[in-house]
Amino acid sequence: MNTKTAKLSLVIAALISQQALATDKGQNTQKNSDVFKLGTISVSGESDNAGTVSTVTPDDIRVKGDTDVGQAIEDIPGVSLQFGGQRAETRASIRGFDSRQITLNLDGIPIYIPYDGNIDLSRFRTSDLSKIEVTKSLGSLLEGPNNMGGSINLVTKRPSKPLEVNANFGVETGKDGLFKNAQDIQVGSRLSDKYYVTGGVSRLEGSDFPLSDSYSPVNPTVQGKGNRNHSGSESSTGNLKFGFTPNATDEYAISYYKTQGTKQSPPYAGDTAATGQSVRYWDWPQWDKESVYYVGRTQIGKGYLKSRLFYDNFKNKLYSYNDDTYTTITKGYAFRSQYDDHSIGGSLEGGVPIDNHMIKAALFIKNDEHKERDLKKDNSPSSFDQSWRTYQGHTYSGTLEDTIQFSKKTSLTLGYRHDLYELTKTDDGDPNNDPHGSQNKDNFQIKAEHELGTHTVFAGVSAKSRFPNMKDMFSYRMGKAIPNVNLKAEQALSYEVGSKGHFNKLRYQANVFYSDISDAIESVSVANSLCGAGATSCTQNQNVGKSTSSGLELSMGMPVTETVDVNLSYSYLDRVLADKSLTATNVPKNQVHISSDWFATSSLNMGVDWDYIADQQTSSDGSRPVAGHNLWTARAEYQINKHFTTNFVLRNVLDTDYEVSEGDPMPGRSLWMNVNAKF
Length: 679
Prior knowledge:
By secondary structure, the protein is mostly beta strands. The chain contains five helices and 34 strands. The protein has helices at residues 3-19, 58-64, 69-73, 272-275, 470-474, and strands spanning 53-56, 79-82, 91-94, 103-106, 109-110, 129-135, 151-156, 164-174, 177-190, 195-206, 233-244, 251-264, 281-300, 303-321, 335-354, 357-375, 389-405, 410-425, 438-452, 455-466, 481-482, 490-503, 506-525, 539-559, 564-577, 590-599, 604-613, 616-617, 625-626, 629-639, 644-651, 659-661, 664-665, 670-678. The chain has a 22-stranded antiparallel β-barrel. A five-stranded mixed beta sheet has the order 1-6-7-4-5. The chain is globular, with a radius of gyration of 25 Å.
């Protein structure tokens, strides 16, 4: 543990010691749930934000055989995923807002990468989660800055019994045998009414996955039939949490989370002559993420005070090789790159009811540091410079929110947040890129909800922003771009109306939305000479983008017999760019998910899922289209006894050949098998 981590741990320990002096106010009533409520978006006991939060539960995850967060959220209306690609990442878009414009949180703690704002969702396992919360345009401003397009919050578990054990062992096989295995175990204990502890480990290993038998190679020298070349990965994850609940209202917890692993990047398998895309041979010998954080809640009269402190670290190595042997690094495009990023910060949130108002206020601070360096190539001289280059920035935020309860059925929420971003250090050797001041942005929200019989209707408008990240401002993109330290924040003005409830046995939710995005950061062509003598192309990120996103989301479900249940979700998204010569990327207009479950007996559940994703573009110039595709999944879950359950999931039943990104074929038919033990 480094010095900064040790200092933060001492601060956390002091806070816990101080807040543990809270007087006992009665029997603890929080111990009957495995959800770590301090990590949720809503304060425990408040409204579930009707219509603004989509939730994925452990049961949803288990029955589908999901092993990572990306898989777990892909059926949520409005969410689209980009799998693979050059960076071999799973990234989410929410209503067309990409992964830089949304935030990923762990128990409310921001864990997205400071340098570029992205995060690989496939690196985060689901075994220690009690639920996943996804918010969109009407998510609370209390979620913090930079969530212009929404947020994903991973909520961990908290034990409610003297001893709890949950373990899984799963394997996945294709036509040529096993290619993936995953194991995890989570153990927790409610030591007493006042103390609990939980921890776990998980491991996932994957080799090259099988392609569809229908796959037809475009560039056989790079990718032939059979298995996807260089598509393996492995990761190991550990977590530990200690909690103290001195009374029925207060709780304090300190948590530790770490994942470490490696991953490979499959080479581009498309038509290089037609698209101009290069075939690159990359892998990550290191992809490590570590977080230590404290969350506490204290009841003060009728109000509350919620505090958070966190330290998050990301260490990463990316190697680019000469060729498909993945052994030598000597050519001009080959390199060894290393990152060492960390964030440290905290927040303080308070709320108090006054008459029919629930008034909340929050302060947030986050200090980011990105360190990068190039390591020696195989032919580098002994004088090669391997020194670190350091970039630093600070984000501050203050929020006020007032929820007015006009009646038991009607409420109005007014919110305002002021964000400030200050770049404090750049280390690229160019004095023109030195920091020169801070920038500010105002955010606001108005949202109304009303209960109408068995329905809740809601409507709202919000203005949310995102500050440019360090990569936006300073990446030279391997000599093909120049920095722009003057980039401003992007902003989205969003409108939304919706309703949720039920008609007799029919459950439903419907949302209609429109967002107007201004000052979007886009790559603009500039004079080639600005990138140096001999440069054949040169770009710069500028605030020139304007676009709109509009659409609707619908989800319905109902029992059609006593043993059969059917669910449907549909999303329509129309993303229009102001520059009509450009095409929005990775935003399918139509997505459909239909599932049918047959509860054959009290122990056996069988189901079928159908997914349709419309065609989309991989490149903004329209040169890399991806055809729409249908996928079928068959699954079965059998309860062996009260402790053991087994799951079988046949993915891509028809062995469909499809792509999500052009030039990156996806897995063919496979069978996932899992045994779950719960005590």
